[in-house]
Amino acid sequence: MNDVLYDVACAMDADDRPISFLARSSGVYQSNDAGDTWHKVSEGHATAVEVSPSFARDQTVFAGLAGGICRSTDHGASWQTVSLGSPAPIVSCMAISPSFENDATVLAGTMEDGVFASRDGGHSWASSNTGLFTSNIVSIAISPDFRQDHLMVLNTEACLFRSANSGKSWQEIESFDVDSEVATVALSDDIAQDGFVLAVTNNGRGYQSRNTGRSWLEVTGLPTELEVVDGAILGKSSDQYTIVLFAAYSIMICTIRGGVVTTTVEAASTSVRVSSASMTRNLEGNQFVLLGLDDGTTRKCTLAVTDETKSWARPGMETSL
Amino acid sequence: MGHLAPGNDDRASGIERREFRRQVIARMESRTATTVVHRPHVFGGMQAGIHKLAGVLRPTLGPQARVTASASINPNGVPELLESGGIIARRMFQLPDAEQNIGAMLLRDMLTRVYDLGGDGVATASVVFESVFDEGIREITAGVDPTRLRSFLRQGLVTILEELDRQRLDIQEGQRLRQVARTVCAELDLADEIGELFALLGAHGNVEVRKGQNDMLQSTLIDGAYWDGTVHHPLMLIDQVGRRADVELCTVFVSDLDIVEPADMVRVLEVARQLPVSGLMLIARQISPSATSVLMANSTASFRIYGVRVAGESVAHQTSALIDLAIVTGARLFRSAAGDTVISLHASDFGHARRAWITRTQFGLIAPAGNGQVVRQHVGSLRQRCIAASDEEQKAVGRRIARLTSSSAIIWVDGANIDAIDRRKELAERTVKAVRGALSQGALPGAGAALLACRVPLTRLLTSSRDPDQQAACRVLLRSLESPARVLAANSGIEAAVVLDRAERAGRGFALNVVTGVVEDVCQAGILDSFGSMCIAVQSAVSAAAQALTIDTLVMRGSMTATQRKRSENA
To answer: Cβ of A158 under 8 Å from any chain B Cβ?
Structure first.
């Protein structure tokens, strides 16, 4: 039976070295050498994985299983599993609060059972579906300013939902009405000031909001027919945003100003289709990127800041298994 | 007058029968005797009746809840202890004096409508009505034409409503909702609980109030959707703990069919068995005893089957519920009116839900598997319907949206005894109505401040008007707009004139905070009223009072009172 690779996650450890995790149908795998080698750290059919934003201090990792969530608080050495009830939900995505050290908030999206939330660092979980009319969760985006604004955006198979109360209830973003599925939703690091939210569909159409998701405008100039898997906002300079799009066979870096794409750079490419991506920033400000591919392998690269205007280099793709 | 019954002797009984008939007719005529009162005597009795009822309701305006004891209909019954202005008004059936009764019943009828529509604002409506009526009488006595006065009062009402709309505050966050709840409900724990629930559920949220089983206030969010309904046979739940069944991986058959033939039930079960599920919820209008037997015989521990019917006030409500069920589960709706039968049933016609639960009176679905886009479109169309719908339809459609978007909650109210629990339940329901209204329509500065602010445009209208009747209407309304603030001050033992003067000097949005005893910015102090309730109260009160001022003649059943007889003799 194929060992399917569902998800990847990475973070910087206390020594500013990338540590990575994979969620595979055979279990959870870990790499301590920037993805060069991997070893299994947990059994079970893992379908999602997420690393604490404060991993360097709390060494916490979560993995979604078929029917539960497992958690490690010791750098992956040991794992505890918590059941999500019956019938067993299949976890499709996870998101950890940027202020996890303070609020211990973690969310898990599932394929058929909606959202589960933990407010105690993963010890206990409860469904959190008030306001939802669909149970198929694609991804969850949490505001970088979550400690103040308690803002989350939920990407479902039907539409986007917004929560301003830490996921306790959700309101449909009625103004976001597109025909395609949304591949990624990303919130600006400076969201308290600019309210900037980016959503990109899986066929490469982009939309931006300047009021934390209440209303949207289409972003013009993105590469046409780009099959997008994931994305993120790399940075902001004046009123210009730099975004990264993890497409099926490439990594694209675009700059957006006033809703128009001004530059597009292909940072890396691969011959095998990308199925998942994760990114973490080191102390130098460079982004370590880990890609999961359809053939079950991984690729890594570093997106490096080249100059003061934060343009990004094209470093090529390194290979790892 | 003696009572003579016919005797047995023919000739004597004929005389007696005629006398008996004469006495009965005289008695009937005295009861159906009609008393007519014309102007200028129309208003005296009416005003007294209005004052009586308004006087009973005035303490309920606040600041603290006052209790009214209402005698039971049963002479030996325990008096009811009431705090709600709407309920108190409903208990006022009839005053002994016919003229007073007309006035009181006019006021009562208006207040009942305010209570039914808004839940809150009865006391405000009462004091405004009383004031408009009293001031209106004064103007009519001075020579103002009542019909023109009514017309100008209604014009002035438009100005008031426009000014209230300008002051409207949009509230969504929990703290503001709790403040609105606290204005209606003096019991802070209950008010805060309701405010928090609506902060989570939103404007279309459905909060059901139930009597608690223990002495704690509790609330719970309902995961998924639920409907009122019953099982087709009580034996379906007899072996379930607490008469509640829970089913995982449930398939759902949605219909309004009458399943009469056992063969039809067999057909449904055979197709359902093809699916990888653990249970079947069969929704049908009727299931015959023989078909029920087939159902019960095939229900096993590994494949539970429950037959339920959807409840509803009308066929239209039931049909709406079935449509929602079909969409949210992804099922095909089988309708008898469309000639659907189970003969054409396929496995793809079933809907699905991750979990289902059934009790004797309700059933629910958790994580139903309907197509998200289809559900989204359906919810969107219901939201559009809400915009232009009547109040009743808004409530019905709002409940549907709440079910479809998993936005329902139950709050159990507690109390020391049954009467206390009943009172708390009524208070909770009234608070739920007011908070929902505030969430969907907004809030206003409370403590009478919003009405006081309406004096500015009315004063402009007064000074710009050249018509004496219009000026009179403005004067009536200006005085009436102060009445809630006056009553609040009086109830607090503070001189009303002083309060009004300070509020006017302080400016817009300022009124007496009865808790602190200080005139301050009421919004800052968290004193808010529901916009919808206030508009209903003011509109109803002014309209009804304006109409009452045009009454020219009273026609009353029964003999004249001594006062009426004397008046007619002197006329």
So the answer is: yes
Q: What is the pLDDT of residues A214-231, one digit of tens each?
A: 899 999 999 988 999 999
Task: Report the complex ipTM.
Answer: 0.92
Residues B516 and B526: their CA atoms lie apart, in Å, by 12
φ/ψ bin of A43: left (φ > 0), alpha (ψ from -120 to 50), beta (otherwise)? beta
Give the closest residue to B456 by CA, choosing from B515, B390, B504, B405: B504
- Per residue in A141-185, pLDDT (tens digit) is 999 999 999 999 999 999 999 999 999 999 999 999 998 999 999
Would you call A165 and B200 a contact, using CB atoms and an 8 Å cutoff? yes
The DSSP secondary-structure symbol of B425 reads: H
Q: Does A230 touch chain B if contact means CB atoms closer than 8 Å?
A: no
φ, ψ dihedrals at A302, nearest 5°: -120, 125
Residues 6 or more apart whose CB falls under 8 angstroms from that of A58 comprise: A52, A73, A100, A101
Report the C-alpha gap between A125 and A107 in whole angstroms.
Answer: 9
Q: Please answer yes or no on whether A113 and B367 come within 8 Å at the CB atom.
A: yes
Full DSSP string of B221-277: EEPSEEEEEEES-GGGGTTSGGG-EEEEEEEEEEE--EE-SHHHHHHHHHHHHTSS-
Nearest Cα neighbor of A153 from A91, A195, A206 is A195
Distance CA B520, CA B502 (A): 9
Q: How many CB pairs under 8 A join A and B?
A: 69
Which residue of chain A has the CA closest to B225? A133
Q: Is B373 touching A (CB cutoff 8 A)?
A: yes
